[in-house]
Amino acid sequence: MNDSSTRVSGMIWAGYVLLLLFSFSLYWSLLLWAGVAALALGYYQRRQARKEGSLAECAQAQWQVNTVWLALLLAGLGIGGIAGVAGWMGNDPTIMAKLDELSSGDKPPLEMLRQFWAIPGSKALIAFMCGSVLLYLVWTLKRTLQGLLSLWQGVAPASLGALRWLALLAAVLLQVGIPLVLL
User: For residue 145, which of 134, 156, 157, 136 has the smallest C-alpha distance?
Assistant: First the structure.
């Protein structure tokens, strides 16, 4: 094995380490820079792999690039959807009056929660927030773990087979388990 193929292979592992860090960026926003680094490194790896004619390394690098872009797309759609529902709720004067009444904070928390839940659109807002955060957290980590498993198996990430379900299960357990442990 020559130096260039070793360097690119090591850089692929480095890309997955950056993606692992990026997968937890909602917990610590500084880790968003790991996504930027993974994206730049992925483009570089893909170019190097194409020059060397390594299809496997090119597929791994493309998987890393697509993972970052998918995460950014999911985050953008989530923020847009949340802003849309919140904007719709903010345009209705009766809803705003109910929200202003709740913001005084002179009621017990459970009663405030019941009143918030009765406001039209609040269920959609909460569902959209939870769904978009869960998709962003779980899907990014699932793709990262799937890529790592494919490196271990020596296949392209898209053709991993049944092990992709193991990656999904591990991603759900990690992303749900971490907040439970921290709380």
Answer: 157
The answer to whether 15 touches 45, Cβ cutoff 8 Å, is yes
* Predicted pLDDT at 113: 86
Burial pattern 144-160, b for ≥16 Cβ within 10 A else e, equals: bbbbbbbbeeeebbeeb
CA distance 34 to 21: 6
Return the top range by mean pLDDT from 2-16, 88-102, 151-165. Answer: 151-165
DSSP 162: T
- For the whole model, what pTM was predicted? 0.80
Please answer whether residues 82 and 129 qualify as being in contact, where contact means their C-beta atoms are separated by less than 8 angstroms: yes
Residues 12 and 167: their CA atoms lie apart, in Å, by 18
**Rounded Cα distance, 174 and 167, in Å:** 10
Residue found by looking up tokens 């903010």 in the block: 90
Give CA–CA dist 18/11, Å, rounded. 10
Instruction: Report the pLDDT value the prediction gives residue 13, as an integer from 0 to 100.
Output: 92
3-state secondary structure of 111: helix
